[in-house]
Specification:
The protein is mainly alpha-helical and 98 residues long. It has helices at 3-22, 32-39, 49-52, 61-72, 81-96. The protein has a domain at 29-96.
């Protein structure tokens, strides 16, 4: 393999890695149906209007995942990583659509 080919391959791999990170592929797979059931607990403190507010602060799938994880720590027991993935999948499917 010559230097030019190696350099091109390095650039392609860097672009691929960056695009996977930006598209939220680092977020685990979740089950939206299970997430909807788990989300019922969230409704004891707030309704779903904050998800559709024009002033909502969540602007990416990874940010949504972080917020679900952050608030999931308030529950006893805290949400598991799979629970967080499931709720993230539900919220994204039903409201955010990233």
């Amino acid at each position: 393999m010559n230097r030019l080919s190696l350099k091109r391959m390095t650039i392609v791999l860097a672009i691929l890695a960056a695009s996977l990170t930006l598209t939220g592929c680092s977020v685990g797979k979740g089950d939206a149906v299970a997430g909807e059931r788990i989300h019922e607990v969230c409704l004891s403190c707030h309704d779903t209007s904050l998800y559709v507010s024009p002033r909502r602060k969540i602007e990416s799938l990874s940010a949504l995942h972080r917020e679900v994880a952050r608030w999931g720590d308030y529950y006893n027991p805290a949400l598991s990583e799979q629970d967080v993935n499931d709720v993230t999948a539900y919220l994204n499917t039903a409201f955010y659509k990233f």
